[in-house]
Write a structure and sequence with these properties.
Number of strands: 10
Radius of gyration: 18 Å
Shape: globular
Number of helices: 10
CATH topology of the largest domain: Rossmann fold
Strand order of the largest sheet: 2-1-3-4-5
CATH superfamily of the largest domain: Response regulator
CATH architecture of the largest domain: 3-Layer(aba) Sandwich
Order of helices and strands: EHEHEHEHEHEHEHEHEHEH
Largest sheet: 5 strands, parallel
CATH class of the largest domain: Alpha Beta
Length: 268
Protein backbone atom coordinates (compact mmCIF):
# COMPACT_ATOMS: atom_id res chain seq x y z
CA UNK A 1 0.00 0.00 0.00
CA UNK A 2 1.67 3.20 -1.12
CA UNK A 3 1.96 6.31 1.01
CA UNK A 4 -0.81 8.86 0.65
CA UNK A 5 -0.03 12.15 -1.12
CA UNK A 6 -2.30 14.04 1.29
CA UNK A 7 -1.72 12.99 4.92
CA UNK A 8 -4.78 13.17 7.14
CA UNK A 9 -5.35 12.72 10.87
CA UNK A 10 -6.51 9.45 12.43
CA UNK A 11 -7.65 9.32 16.05
CA UNK A 12 -6.99 5.86 17.48
CA UNK A 13 -9.05 5.08 20.57
CA UNK A 14 -7.44 2.06 22.24
CA UNK A 15 -6.62 1.44 25.90
CA UNK A 16 -4.01 -1.28 25.25
CA UNK A 17 -0.62 0.33 24.52
CA UNK A 18 0.76 -2.78 22.79
CA UNK A 19 -2.23 -2.99 20.47
CA UNK A 20 -1.94 0.74 19.74
CA UNK A 21 1.64 0.21 18.58
CA UNK A 22 0.63 -2.78 16.47
CA UNK A 23 -2.11 -0.83 14.70
CA UNK A 24 0.22 2.14 14.20
CA UNK A 25 2.73 -0.22 12.58
CA UNK A 26 0.03 -1.57 10.24
CA UNK A 27 -0.92 1.97 9.17
CA UNK A 28 2.56 3.50 9.07
CA UNK A 29 3.00 2.98 5.32
CA UNK A 30 -0.05 5.16 4.60
CA UNK A 31 1.75 8.24 5.88
CA UNK A 32 -1.07 9.70 7.97
CA UNK A 33 -0.80 11.45 11.34
CA UNK A 34 -2.01 9.22 14.17
CA UNK A 35 -3.08 10.58 17.53
CA UNK A 36 -4.26 8.41 20.41
CA UNK A 37 -6.81 8.30 23.20
CA UNK A 38 -7.11 5.55 25.82
CA UNK A 39 -10.92 5.55 26.16
CA UNK A 40 -14.08 7.10 24.79
CA UNK A 41 -14.12 10.03 27.21
CA UNK A 42 -10.56 11.00 26.34
CA UNK A 43 -11.42 10.69 22.63
CA UNK A 44 -14.30 13.16 23.00
CA UNK A 45 -11.97 15.58 24.77
CA UNK A 46 -9.37 15.26 22.01
CA UNK A 47 -12.04 15.97 19.39
CA UNK A 48 -12.96 19.21 21.17
CA UNK A 49 -9.39 20.37 20.61
CA UNK A 50 -9.20 19.44 16.92
CA UNK A 51 -11.24 17.25 14.59
CA UNK A 52 -9.65 14.13 13.09
CA UNK A 53 -10.51 12.79 9.63
CA UNK A 54 -11.15 9.23 10.87
CA UNK A 55 -11.65 7.50 14.22
CA UNK A 56 -10.47 3.93 14.82
CA UNK A 57 -12.39 2.84 17.90
CA UNK A 58 -11.95 -0.10 20.26
CA UNK A 59 -15.15 -1.37 21.87
CA UNK A 60 -14.16 -2.46 25.38
CA UNK A 61 -12.42 0.32 27.33
CA UNK A 62 -12.51 1.80 30.83
CA UNK A 63 -14.35 5.04 31.66
CA UNK A 64 -16.40 5.05 28.43
CA UNK A 65 -16.66 2.17 25.96
CA UNK A 66 -16.56 2.49 22.20
CA UNK A 67 -20.30 2.02 21.66
CA UNK A 68 -21.19 4.98 23.89
CA UNK A 69 -18.44 7.09 22.33
CA UNK A 70 -19.80 6.29 18.86
CA UNK A 71 -23.30 7.36 19.88
CA UNK A 72 -22.06 10.66 21.28
CA UNK A 73 -19.84 11.43 18.28
CA UNK A 74 -22.58 10.66 15.77
CA UNK A 75 -25.13 12.58 17.84
CA UNK A 76 -23.04 15.75 17.75
CA UNK A 77 -23.44 17.74 14.48
CA UNK A 78 -19.82 18.91 14.76
CA UNK A 79 -18.47 15.35 14.66
CA UNK A 80 -21.28 13.35 12.99
CA UNK A 81 -19.59 13.41 9.58
CA UNK A 82 -16.32 11.91 10.79
CA UNK A 83 -16.14 8.20 9.87
CA UNK A 84 -15.72 5.72 12.71
CA UNK A 85 -14.20 2.27 12.20
CA UNK A 86 -14.71 -0.03 15.18
CA UNK A 87 -11.76 -2.40 15.59
CA UNK A 88 -12.31 -4.90 18.38
CA UNK A 89 -11.68 -8.46 19.52
CA UNK A 90 -15.13 -8.53 21.11
CA UNK A 91 -17.23 -11.28 19.57
CA UNK A 92 -20.93 -12.10 19.82
CA UNK A 93 -23.00 -9.09 18.78
CA UNK A 94 -20.18 -6.54 18.53
CA UNK A 95 -20.75 -5.79 14.83
CA UNK A 96 -24.50 -5.21 15.25
CA UNK A 97 -23.92 -3.06 18.34
CA UNK A 98 -21.28 -1.01 16.52
CA UNK A 99 -23.53 -0.25 13.56
CA UNK A 100 -26.46 0.45 15.88
CA UNK A 101 -24.28 2.99 17.71
CA UNK A 102 -23.55 4.77 14.43
CA UNK A 103 -20.19 3.30 13.41
CA UNK A 104 -19.40 3.47 9.71
CA UNK A 105 -17.34 0.29 9.59
CA UNK A 106 -16.27 -2.73 11.60
CA UNK A 107 -13.27 -5.07 11.70
CA UNK A 108 -12.27 -7.76 14.15
CA UNK A 109 -8.85 -7.89 15.79
CA UNK A 110 -6.34 -8.87 14.71
CA UNK A 111 -7.16 -7.18 11.40
CA UNK A 112 -5.50 -8.23 8.18
CA UNK A 113 -3.07 -5.41 7.33
CA UNK A 114 -4.18 -5.01 3.73
CA UNK A 115 -7.86 -5.01 4.69
CA UNK A 116 -7.29 -2.43 7.43
CA UNK A 117 -5.28 -0.23 5.08
CA UNK A 118 -7.82 -0.26 2.24
CA UNK A 119 -10.71 0.44 4.61
CA UNK A 120 -8.83 3.35 6.18
CA UNK A 121 -7.80 4.79 2.81
CA UNK A 122 -11.30 4.51 1.37
CA UNK A 123 -12.96 6.21 4.34
CA UNK A 124 -10.35 8.98 4.27
CA UNK A 125 -10.83 9.42 0.53
CA UNK A 126 -14.60 9.73 0.98
CA UNK A 127 -14.07 12.17 3.88
CA UNK A 128 -11.84 14.38 1.73
CA UNK A 129 -14.27 14.29 -1.21
CA UNK A 130 -17.28 15.02 1.02
CA UNK A 131 -15.56 18.10 2.44
CA UNK A 132 -15.20 19.38 -1.13
CA UNK A 133 -18.57 18.30 -2.55
CA UNK A 134 -20.83 18.73 0.46
CA UNK A 135 -23.75 16.30 0.90
CA UNK A 136 -25.18 15.58 -2.56
CA UNK A 137 -28.26 13.50 -3.20
CA UNK A 138 -27.42 9.83 -3.79
CA UNK A 139 -27.13 8.68 -7.39
CA UNK A 140 -28.02 5.39 -9.07
CA UNK A 141 -24.62 3.74 -9.65
CA UNK A 142 -23.56 1.66 -12.63
CA UNK A 143 -21.96 -1.49 -11.18
CA UNK A 144 -19.86 -4.04 -13.09
CA UNK A 145 -19.88 -7.47 -11.39
CA UNK A 146 -17.07 -9.75 -12.59
CA UNK A 147 -17.19 -13.40 -11.46
CA UNK A 148 -17.12 -16.89 -12.89
CA UNK A 149 -19.94 -17.76 -10.50
CA UNK A 150 -23.51 -16.97 -11.52
CA UNK A 151 -24.43 -17.31 -7.83
CA UNK A 152 -21.96 -14.60 -6.80
CA UNK A 153 -23.11 -12.31 -9.61
CA UNK A 154 -26.75 -12.69 -8.61
CA UNK A 155 -25.97 -12.35 -4.88
CA UNK A 156 -24.25 -9.01 -5.38
CA UNK A 157 -27.25 -7.68 -7.28
CA UNK A 158 -29.85 -9.09 -4.91
CA UNK A 159 -27.97 -8.04 -1.77
CA UNK A 160 -27.52 -4.45 -2.96
CA UNK A 161 -30.95 -4.25 -4.60
CA UNK A 162 -31.50 -4.73 -8.32
CA UNK A 163 -33.59 -1.58 -8.48
CA UNK A 164 -30.93 0.50 -6.69
CA UNK A 165 -28.27 0.28 -9.43
CA UNK A 166 -27.66 -0.54 -13.07
CA UNK A 167 -25.79 -3.84 -13.09
CA UNK A 168 -23.47 -5.12 -15.81
CA UNK A 169 -22.02 -8.64 -15.72
CA UNK A 170 -18.81 -10.28 -16.89
CA UNK A 171 -17.43 -13.77 -16.29
CA UNK A 172 -13.75 -13.20 -17.13
CA UNK A 173 -11.03 -10.64 -17.70
CA UNK A 174 -11.48 -10.03 -21.45
CA UNK A 175 -15.26 -9.72 -21.12
CA UNK A 176 -14.81 -7.31 -18.19
CA UNK A 177 -12.45 -5.13 -20.26
CA UNK A 178 -15.02 -5.02 -23.07
CA UNK A 179 -17.81 -4.10 -20.62
CA UNK A 180 -15.70 -1.32 -19.12
CA UNK A 181 -15.09 0.20 -22.55
CA UNK A 182 -18.74 -0.15 -23.57
CA UNK A 183 -20.49 0.98 -20.38
CA UNK A 184 -18.01 3.01 -18.27
CA UNK A 185 -19.18 1.63 -14.90
CA UNK A 186 -18.90 3.69 -11.73
CA UNK A 187 -17.42 0.82 -9.75
CA UNK A 188 -16.40 -2.80 -10.19
CA UNK A 189 -17.12 -5.76 -7.92
CA UNK A 190 -14.31 -8.18 -8.77
CA UNK A 191 -14.27 -11.83 -7.73
CA UNK A 192 -10.88 -13.55 -7.51
CA UNK A 193 -12.49 -16.50 -9.35
CA UNK A 194 -12.82 -15.69 -13.06
CA UNK A 195 -13.77 -17.87 -15.99
CA UNK A 196 -10.66 -16.71 -17.88
CA UNK A 197 -7.79 -14.34 -17.27
CA UNK A 198 -6.57 -12.92 -13.99
CA UNK A 199 -8.39 -10.74 -11.46
CA UNK A 200 -5.06 -9.25 -10.37
CA UNK A 201 -4.09 -8.36 -13.94
CA UNK A 202 -7.44 -6.69 -14.46
CA UNK A 203 -7.27 -4.75 -11.18
CA UNK A 204 -3.74 -3.51 -11.89
CA UNK A 205 -4.69 -2.48 -15.43
CA UNK A 206 -7.60 -0.42 -14.11
CA UNK A 207 -5.46 1.16 -11.39
CA UNK A 208 -2.69 2.08 -13.85
CA UNK A 209 -5.06 3.54 -16.46
CA UNK A 210 -5.17 7.34 -16.44
CA UNK A 211 -8.84 7.22 -17.43
CA UNK A 212 -9.99 4.41 -15.12
CA UNK A 213 -7.82 4.66 -12.00
CA UNK A 214 -10.49 6.44 -9.96
CA UNK A 215 -13.00 3.64 -10.51
CA UNK A 216 -13.33 1.89 -7.11
CA UNK A 217 -12.87 -1.88 -7.01
CA UNK A 218 -14.48 -4.13 -4.39
CA UNK A 219 -12.56 -7.39 -4.24
CA UNK A 220 -14.42 -10.61 -3.33
CA UNK A 221 -11.98 -13.12 -1.88
CA UNK A 222 -11.75 -16.41 -0.02
CA UNK A 223 -9.68 -16.80 3.17
CA UNK A 224 -5.95 -16.86 2.48
CA UNK A 225 -6.09 -14.94 -0.80
CA UNK A 226 -5.38 -11.44 0.50
CA UNK A 227 -1.68 -12.12 1.02
CA UNK A 228 -1.00 -12.22 -2.72
CA UNK A 229 -2.94 -8.97 -3.21
CA UNK A 230 -1.14 -7.08 -0.45
CA UNK A 231 2.01 -6.83 -2.59
CA UNK A 232 0.22 -4.74 -5.22
CA UNK A 233 0.07 -0.95 -5.08
CA UNK A 234 -3.46 0.02 -4.04
CA UNK A 235 -5.27 -2.20 -6.55
CA UNK A 236 -8.59 -2.19 -4.69
CA UNK A 237 -10.66 0.22 -2.62
CA UNK A 238 -12.24 -2.45 -0.41
CA UNK A 239 -12.38 -6.20 0.06
CA UNK A 240 -15.10 -8.58 1.19
CA UNK A 241 -14.72 -12.20 2.19
CA UNK A 242 -16.90 -14.90 0.62
CA UNK A 243 -19.42 -16.39 1.15
CA UNK A 244 -21.32 -13.14 0.83
CA UNK A 245 -23.74 -11.94 3.51
CA UNK A 246 -26.42 -9.50 2.40
CA UNK A 247 -25.99 -6.65 4.94
CA UNK A 248 -22.22 -6.53 4.49
CA UNK A 249 -22.39 -6.75 0.69
CA UNK A 250 -24.85 -3.88 0.66
CA UNK A 251 -22.70 -1.83 3.02
CA UNK A 252 -19.49 -2.35 1.02
CA UNK A 253 -21.05 -1.63 -2.38
CA UNK A 254 -22.86 1.43 -0.99
CA UNK A 255 -19.60 2.81 0.41
CA UNK A 256 -17.82 2.60 -2.94
CA UNK A 257 -20.85 3.88 -4.84
CA UNK A 258 -20.77 6.97 -2.61
CA UNK A 259 -17.07 7.44 -3.26
CA UNK A 260 -17.55 7.15 -7.02
CA UNK A 261 -20.39 9.68 -6.94
CA UNK A 262 -18.37 12.18 -4.91
CA UNK A 263 -15.39 11.79 -7.24
CA UNK A 264 -17.58 12.67 -10.22
CA UNK A 265 -18.93 15.77 -8.50
CA UNK A 266 -15.48 17.00 -7.50
CA UNK A 267 -14.02 16.35 -10.95
CA UNK A 268 -16.93 18.00 -12.80
Amino acid sequence: MSQSASPMTILMVEDNALQRRQIEAQLQALGHRIIAASNGQEALERMQESLPDLVIMDAVMPSMDGFKACELMKGNPATAGIPILVLTALSRDAKDRSYAAGADDFLRKPANTMLLQVRVQTHLRIRALALQAGTPAPARPKVLVVSASSLVRSQVQNHYGKDQATFIEAQGESQARAQILAHRPDLMVLDTELLEGSAQTLAVAVHQSEELRDMPILLLYTPGELETWSRLQEPVADALEKPLVAPETRRRVSLLARMAHLQKLVQA
